[in-house]
Design goal:
- The chain is an all-beta fold.
- 0% of the residues lie in helices and 18% in strands.
- The strands form 2 sheets. Strands 1-2-3-4 form a 4-stranded mixed β-sheet, with no helix packed on it.
- It starts with 36 loop residues before the first strand and ends in a 5-residue tail after the last strand.
Amino acid sequence: ETTTFETDIYATEQLDVENGGTGVALKVKQNSNYDIVNILNDSDEVFTILHSGNVGIYNENPTISLDINTTDSIKLPRGDTSQRPIDNTNTDNSHRGYIRFNTELTV
């Protein structure tokens, strides 16, 4: 079952979505060439999804798929060789391009 609504959410309210079924809990569709999502804190836009699918973190106009505009860091998944998220016998190369810190390797 799908419920479609158009409403204003006021400062003293929140939108809470709970799904006890097996389907998608929240689906957002933007039919026009406008931003899909803008999430703000008290003063700044902190998360953006453009119509193109580009995602910005502290960037209102991301120009690439993931555009992060901060000076701190990115935390990468880590683990030993046995914890890699791939089957090493897989030959279709679908695992190429992963970024992960291997705690076993030494340079």
